[in-house]
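Worked example 4.2. Below are the chains of a multi-component assembly; read each line carefully before continuing.
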Amino acid sequence: MADNNTYDAIVIGSGISGGWAAKELTEKGLKVIMLERGRNIEHVKDYVNATKGTWEFAHRGTKTRQMMKDYPVLNRDYPLNETNLDWWVNEKESPYTEIKRFDWFRGYHVGGRSLMWGRQSWRWADQDFEANAKEGIAIDWPVRYKEIAPWYDHVEKFAGISGNRDGIPHLPDGQFMPPMEMTVVEKDVAARIKEIYKGQRHMIIGRTANITEPLPGRTNCQYRDKCWLGCPFGAYFSTQSSTLPAAMRTGNLTLRPWSIVTRILYDKDKKRATGVEVLDAESNQTYEYKGKIIFLNASTLNSAWVLMNSATDVWPEGLGSSSGQLGHNLMDHHIGGATMGVVEGYEDKYTYGRRANGIYIPRYRNMFGERRDYLRGFGYQGAGMRGRGAQPAEMLAIGLDLKEALTEPGPWTMFVGGFGETLPYHDNRVTLDKTKKDKWGLNVLAIDAAIKDNEKKMRIDMANDAKEMLERSGLKNVTGIPFGEPVLGRGIHEMGTARMGADAQTSVLNKWNQVWDAPNVFVTDGSFMASANCVNPSLTYMAFTARAADHAVSELKKQNL
Amino acid sequence: MNRRQALSAVGALLGGTIIGANYFLSGCKPTGKKAAAGFTADDIALLDEVGETIIPTSADSPGAKAAMIGEFMRTIVNDCYTDNQQKAFTEGVTQLQRSCRERFGKDFISLSPDQKKELATTLDKEAKALNSSDEYKKRRLAYDSLQANWVRSEESSNDFGASHLKDEYPPHYFTMIKQLTIWGYFTSEVGMTKALRYIETPGRFDGAYPYKKGDKAWGIGGFFG
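Applying the procedure described above to all two chains together yields the following structure tokens:
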């Protein structure tokens, strides 16, 4: 334990990337304090709903009118529910301003959204890192696949990613545990897609951060499909199940919940950060912590917020704003094209267990020499499962026949939904709204972002392709499912606002995630992303975080920081 | 399946809209007014009987009454229904009793099992006929357009959550009772573990598990497993 509030390193935030920073830095011998703005949630002990049956929830998991009133943002999509309500941010305490609609789904507690995340884990490939440069969009990534590949290896091995080695060049294989099984219907549709699209389109099992073999202190997935209540088996990757215990084991970590970092302290003569200012969320007392290096992992938008509030005596727009890029280039994945159809046959087959994973159709558009009227592409997630109910309830009368019909399995159905790439637009941005304060009297963020022409054109393919693929694969009653407005935020994959790049004039961070204007500050959550690709991003944050931590320690040893 | 997938899959599973299950409809405009859905003990007992008629006890499993379906309906109607839906529901319960007395000269609870089934079957048909009638659709459309106006005016003042808070024109009251019975029963302990098969910790996944006619479906617990 360091004295006098001084540590070797300060990690701001305890979600997916913050947890990784804490683990890597403590394992390399640094004394680290990890600051989390919300409360603590202890692994297993605090997963209070994890073993409840559906019937033990008064409203069987669904939301009430009171909840809808209290959580007007969360109410816009699936996260508002009765079973893990405490893990979503209190919107009254922490408001934000929507210049355009932006659905911001947050978790302010130890572990952050690593407790509730979707767990799909995909590598990027060279085509993704190269796209900006080749197409003249925004700025080039300063990193290529071969530099990050060993770090993907590193994080996959520790986090535990199950998946199949599919040999798809643009979706590189990794260090996988055995894959979860596809259902008989998914295998059937996958074979048809491969044949129809001549090996250019694939349907593969999701690569997911649910372990299929035990790891130290963690049991393999038990197929309960209750991940987002917290897993008593530690079977999915979260800060609590994985990085936090590893960091704690070193004896080098101090975890401080209820710690809102209000700014990074900056020494303009040394051009280095010296520490952080913390507002205790319970006592409202202010503290300072000193550190040689700082890892900023407050989640994309909040990391931008911390930077904007820091070193304002030197740069009025905040630390990292000298490039004019801080807060800009906000991205998310635009979701849509949800489509469903019925698979005939296979009446003698069913499933056993509840698989918290689905299938994936990787990107295929604007590849293989094709050129659409938009850039980039999209992937689909989905599942082929057998439902319940021999006939829809509304068709049936009442009594024993109704009961029997609803007690039988129904037909097999397949569902897919698309995640599309959003380009980095300079005018999609966050700023400080100095007219509105949160519970602690702090300025809130104003979000001003929307999809544009490229995404709108892509969405037409996203909807049409899903229908076409399912129909050509022999499904019946193929129908699109209305998914509502294509608003940003709903993908819950916020990225950008502090992009990395090759020079200080056009980017906030260098290729090692260091703030150009304060090289001992590393930003390794989604804010560093220079483009969004269409795959779920968390694995990439993990890899860049581990790489940045390695670089940070090496630079510290060379006394460069 | 993950959450985003479940969201859509369950809609198909249950065959359409369920009132109060807000994943499929926008549901309740939270006016903040506490609903005056005063359910008496008699109402609960009545709803238990109606529910049991819709999903009766069978050889292998208890019916909706054992799932305390009346209590469940009270909870959902009070906590999840919009004012509009609550009103339609509570008026419907009164209407049900009135129809019963007109037809049989006594309360539902005192009817023989055959009479209960007869009345519920009649109401089910009446509900289906109403819900698909042009008159009903016209009223519903008119109501929806008023709601859409409200949403537009809210959104113009940057209340972007309005589309998820708009009210919904209710179907025939018996449709609501039936939907609540089905939803409540198949997410209840007896429904999930007796009428269906339920294993809390399956331990493995088999995507081609043998099935023969008569095997029960798995209880996956509605929205959140």
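Take a moment to check your reading of the output against the notes. The radius of gyration of chain B is 19 Å. Chain B has a mean pLDDT of 85.
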